[in-house]
From TrEMBL:
It comes from Cellulomonas persica. GO terms for biological process: oligosaccharide catabolic process. It comes from the Bacteria. SUPFAM superfamilies: (Trans)glycosidases (SSF51445). Residues 259-271 have a biased composition (Basic and acidic residues). This is Alpha-glucosidase. SMART domains: Aamy (SM00642). CDD domains: AmyAc_OligoGlu_TS (cd11332). Keywords: Glycoprotein. Residues 34-462 form the Glycosyl hydrolase family 13 catalytic domain. GO terms for molecular function: alpha-amylase activity. It holds the Pfam family Alpha-amylase. Belongs to the glycosyl hydrolase 13 family.
Amino acid sequence: MTTLDARPSTDALVVAHSPGAPDGEWWRDAVIYQVYPRSFADGSGDGIGDLPGITSRLDHLAELGVDAVWLSPFYRSPQADAGYDVSDYRDVDPLFGTLDDFDAMLARAHGLGLRVIVDLVPNHTSDEHAWFVEALAAGPGSPARERYLFREGRGEDGQEPPNNWQSIFGGPAWTRLPDGQWYLHLFDSRQPDLNWEHPEVRAEFEDVLRFWLDRGVDGFRIDVAHGMVKAPGLPDWDGHVSMIEGSEQAFEEAEHALHEHASGAAERVDEVTGSGNQGPMFDQEGVHDIYRAWHRVLAEYDGDRALVAEAWVEPLSRLARYVRPDEMHQAFNFAFLATLWHAPSLRDVITASYLASDSVGAPTTWVLSNHDVVRHASRLGLATPGSRPNGIGADDEQPDEELGLRRARCATLLMLGLPGSAYLYQGEELGLPDHTTLPADVRQDPAFFRTQGAELGRDGCRVPLPWSAQEPGFGFSPTGEAWLPQPSTWARYAADAQRGVPGSTYETYRTALRVRRAEALGSGGLTWLPSRDDVLDLVNRDVRVVANLGTEPVELPAGTRVLLASGPLDAAADGTLLIGSDTTVWVRP
Ligand code: GLC
């Protein structure tokens, strides 16, 4: 048993981040909820979620207490990558509704006080986009081909791809056309990469930004924000191309480095947060010009519109360059998401995150789950908790569901106790795990097909939400249909089974968001208190956040009042409260 120090001496405190003004721009401390439209709520009954479905459930989000919603793509698309293959950036796909449905959704959200961010996919279009269709018809050497990255092949008769790049979804990043030319696609062959050196491409996307800004959106999440500009000459690269998995080793190395050095994380941001070399297709200097131009477009509009970067860039000092004052406003902090369930590593990545983002005056942007990774309730139930398999299937190690949920709640309360902005992925407020036994014949992720099943892909985290325990399809759709099957055990996670139930995951999230807002934690500061190695102990404004990742309980100091706990607290014989294993508490000192 360990007793927390009620009043540690000031020498022992480590200030990682100082508080800001509580009334800064909205995105600095916002909690933003990711809606994955095809799996949130289905209004039409076809088993695929849609905009009217979202509108009908926005009150759930207002009641939960988030500040904003980010919608994954709902634009016209053949859905080769679930909508991240856009064929018309200015229209809604009939699967999801119409532009009028979008306007109605936006009006309802704004009426409820929720801001709305939409997804912009500028690295590539769909192969059904008018420009690509035109480029194919126009043939080699035509101006229409200049908007994409068409090249002649290497070797005899150009039979070899122009370089050795691999697609992030598996297989070569080049596809050859019957006319002999090859085109580049960092993702699926149905997602040709645009040529961002082309002025028409730049002009078009500024216009698309304006189209949605004029409709009233509050910002954009920029897909593959680190990928649009490629190194001149598209040189070969022998490294491993990945956005979604693979940095576990980097973190093990970082952890090793941590034990080698006795100094604070401040000088070690780069060691703590990865190696940085992602090859000639990512994180090129030229992307920053694009974001400076977009920053100016958004600045023409009122209301603090914001850009958030999806940039899988290491180390964090490189990521910070995307959020310099004249570029984007936020960038997802994937280094935090990628950290194993290990208190010293988490402490260091958190400190390093502030150091990096404070160096450019930007907020950190915490995230634990999204539509591309195994949900944190499942990741944290694995034998190596926090590792990131590329999907989980029936033949794989199955996560411990109860332990995973306990840790997920612990991780979430740690995250929501930190200053900065935070992103929640739909369903995490219900404690949802991944579907970890999806059969091959229902899988839809192109990564599954391009790797012949070697990578299971991301379908497990995209299963339609359970709203009502008793209804067919758990109330996702009026017909009970769902585009991916839901596990039969999900009744216990349904929103209506948790609403009003003290201690449920949903009510815990709600209370956390209420306290976070009331105490202005999002714009607060972070001071580390000395603690056992497996305990994170910090103060943010008037709230002390203690996360016990160890196996031994921690005793709360006398005189503190518990505001919130991620799980039940036991009491010692003398009545002192104990923070058990994998539990976070928020207390008022
Ligand atoms: C981003 C999206 C992912 C998509 C990829 C290609 O990483 O989050 O879902 O497959 O970009 O657009």
